[in-house]
Write a structure and sequence with these properties.
Residues 34-490 form the Aldehyde dehydrogenase domain. GO terms for molecular function: oxidoreductase activity, acting on the aldehyde or oxo group of donors, NAD or NADP as acceptor. By secondary structure, the protein is α/β, with parallel strands linked by helices. The chain contains 16 helices and 20 strands. Strands 14-15-16-13-12-17-18 form a seven-stranded mixed beta sheet, with helices on both faces. Strands 9-8-7-10-11-19 form a six-stranded mixed beta sheet, with helices on both faces. The radius of gyration is 23 Å and the shape is globular.
Length: 495
C-alpha cells in the first residue's frame, strides 16, 4: 500500500491489509475465488490502493448459501442463553477492537475516523440491544379458541441474505444481522465491492471468539454478479437489501419470483421544514452538520431545506458562513470536518447534479465544484447550497453528496405540501419552538420518519423504515424488526 495518505496506520490494520488479496470468509475459513479473480479496493481520500479482494462467481455464492443452511440447524438448536452468550462475546470483541475497525472503515469508505468509531460502537450497541430483546421473546403463544387446543410457535427461518451499501458498511451490518442472528438464523453478507474490508475483518473476528462456523459468512464481489447471484438464489429464506431504488427494484423482482420475503431500505430526498420562530444560528449549524456528515452520503439526510420566507435571507447567510468553514481533508486527519465521496463515479455524479441543477435554473449560493487537498488524489467535492424552483432535477432526485437545495414557504400548509411533493418517503424534520405545530407537521409529512428539531435520529426501540420509493418490507432498530426474523407456525388439536 502506498504511504501517500501521510498517516500512520495501526499495526493491526497494516497486518490485515497485508493479507491482500483478501478472501471472502465462509464456513469459518477463507473462501477465495477458485479462478483467482480479484478487485482493487481504493482509499477514496488518497486514490491509493489499499488491498485486493476476491471477486466470487455465482457458483461460489451458491456454495456459501449452502454452507449457511448447513450450519443453521445447530445454531437454531442452541438454547437462547447459549446463543446470546456467543453474540455478546462478539459484541465485546468488536468493542475492544473499535480503533482497528474504525481505521479500516475510515480508509475504505472515506469516513472521518471519529465518525467511523461511532459506527462501530453503534454496531456493538445494536447487537446487545437485539440480544436483550431475544432473551424476552415468548416462543409459544396460547390461543383461546373454543373446542381446540391451539397455539403458535415462533421459529427462525434459516439462511438470511444481506446486501449492504458503501456509505455505512459496518453500522448497517450491525443493523441487519443482529436481529437475524439473535433469532437463530444464519447469515450471508454481501458488502459493497468498494467497501468490503470491515465485513471481512468482522467474519475473521467472529471465528476468533467462537461463533460457530457457517453462522456468519461474508461473500465479496461485484454487485452485478455476486450480488445478483445472492438475490437469485432459491435457498435463501429471507433477503434484506439496502441501497438505491433502482437496484432495489431488481432485488424485489428476484425475490418475488422466488417468493422470498424481502426487506428493502432504499434512498431518500428528505425535507427539513424550518419555521420562523427557530434559533437561526443553531438550526443552520445543525442542518449544515447533517449535510456534510459523511460527505452527504446518507440516504435519510435532509437535502431539501424549506425555509420560512421571513427568515430565509438570514438563514442562507448563516449557512454560507458555516459551509465556507468546513475543513475538507483525508479521513485520518483529525483536523478534517468532511472527507471524500466513496469513488470517482460518485464524485462525477455529485458534480453532474450540481451542473444540471444550475443549468435548469437553480442558483448556486455557496460552494459547488471539486475540492482539492494538497498531496492527495482523492474524491473531494465542496459542500454546496443550491436554491430555486422545486421542479429542478437537483431538488427532485437523490444526489447522495453534500448538496442541499433551498426553497421558501409561506405558511404551514405550503410547507407540508412542498415537503410531500416527492417520490421518496424516508425521513423529514420540522424545526420550530411551537410543540403543537411541530407534532401537526411531523404527522402530516408522508415518510417513515419525522424528526422534530433534529435530523438523523436513530434510537434503538424506534422503528426506522421508508415508504414510497424509500423502501418496503418493514424497518430496522425496533422490537418488530426482531420478530421479522421468526416465522410462525400454528399448532391445533381439536378437542
Amino acid at each position: 500500500m502506498s504511504v501517500a495518505t501521510q498517516h500512520t496506520l495501526l499495526p493491526e490494520v497494516q497486518s490485515f491489509l497485508d493479507q491482500s488479496p483478501l478472501a471472502s470468509f465462509v464456513g469459518g475459513k477463507a473462501f477465495p475465488s477458485e479462478q483467482g479473480n480479484v478487485l482493487a479496493t481504493i482509499d477514496p481520500g488518497s486514490g491509493d490502493q489499499l488491498a485486493e479482494i476476491h471477486d466470487l462467481n455465482s457458483a461460489e455464492i451458491d456454495r456459501a448459501v449452502e454452507i449457511a443452511n448447513e450450519a443453521f440447524p445447530a445454531w437454531a438448536g442452541l438454547s437462547q442463553e447459549e446463543r446470546s452468550s456467543i453474540l455478546l462475546k462478539l459484541a465485546d470483541a468488536v468493542e475492544s477492537h473499535k480503533t482497528i475497525i474504525a481505521q479500516i472503515e475510515a480508509l475504505d469508505a472515506g469516513k472521518i475516523e471519529a465518525q467511523a468509531a461511532g459506527d462501530v460502537q453503534n454496531f456493538v450497541d445494536t447487537m446487545r440491544y437485539f440480544v436483550g430483546l431475544s432473551d424476552q421473546v415468548e416462543k409459544r403463544t396460547k390461543l383461546d379458541v373454543p373446542g381446540h387446543d391451539a397455539y403458535t410457535v415462533k421459529q427462525p427461518w434459516g439462511a438470511c441474505a444481506f446486501i449492504f451499501p458503501w456509505n455505512f458498511p459496518f453500522l448497517l451490518i450491525g443493523w441487519g444481522i443482529s436481529p437475524a442472528l439473535a433469532a437463530g438464523n444464519t447469515v450471508v453478507i454481501k458488502p459493497a465491492e468498494d467497501t468490503s474490508l470491515s465485513a471481512i475483518y468482522l467474519a475473521q473476528l467472529a471465528k476468533e471468539v467462537g461463533v460457530p462456523d457457517g453462522v456468519i459468512n461474508v461473500v465479496t464481489g461485484r454487485g452485478a454478479t455476486a450480488g445478483a447471484a445472492l438475490t437469485n438464489n432459491t435457498q435463501i429464506k429471507r433477503m434484506s437489501f439496502t441501497g438505491s431504488p433502482e437496484v432495489g427494484r431488481l432485488v424485489g423482482e428476484s425475490c418475488g419470483r422466488n417468493l422470498v420475503p424481502v426487506k428493502l431500505e432504499l434512498g431518500g430526498k428528505g425535507a427539513a421544514v424550518v419555521f420562523d420562530d427557530v434559533d437561526v444560528k443553531a438550526t443552520a449549524q445543525a442542518l449544515v452538520g447533517a449535510i456534510t456528515f459523511h460527505t452527504g452520503q446518507v440516504c435519510c439526510d435532509a437535502t431539501r431545506w424549506l425555509i420560512h420566507e421571513n427568515i430565509y435571507d438570514e438563514f442562507v447567510s448563516e449557512c454560507k458562513q458555516l459551509m465556507e468553514k468546513v475543513r475538507i481533508g483525508h479521513p485520518l486527519d483529525p483536523n478534517s470536518d468532511m472527507g471524500p465521496v466513496v469513488n470517482p463515479k460518485q464524485r462525477e455524479r455529485v458534480l453532474g447534479y450540481q451542473e444540471k441543477g444550475t443549468a435548469g435554473g437553480a442558483q448556486c449560493l455557496c460552494g459547488g465544484g471539486p475540492a482539492t487537498v494538497d498531496g492527495l488524489n482523492g474524491n473531494y467535492v465542496k459542500p454546496t447550497l443550491l436554491a430555486g424552483p422545486l421542479d429542478n432535477v437537483a431538488a427532485r432526485e437523490e444526489i447522495f453528496g453534500p448538496v442541499a437545495y433551498l426553497a421558501k414557504f409561506s405558511n404551514e400548509a405550503d410547507a407540508i405540501a412542498k415537503a410531500n411533493d416527492t417520490d421518496y418517503g424516508l425521513a423529514n424534520s420540522v424545526w420550530t419552538t411551537d410543540a403543537e405545530r411541530a407534532n401537526r407537521v411531523a404527522e402530516a409529512m408522508i415518510a417513515g420518519n419525522s424528526w422534530i428539531n433534529a435530523h438523523n435520529v436513530f434510537a434503538h426501540g424506534v422503528p426506522y423504515g421508508g415508504v414510497k420509493k424509500s423502501g418496503m418490507g418493514g424497518g430496522v432498530l425496533s422490537p418488530e424488526t426482531l420478530m421479522d426474523y421468526y416465522r410462525s407456525t400454528s399448532v391445533v388439536r381439536p378437542l
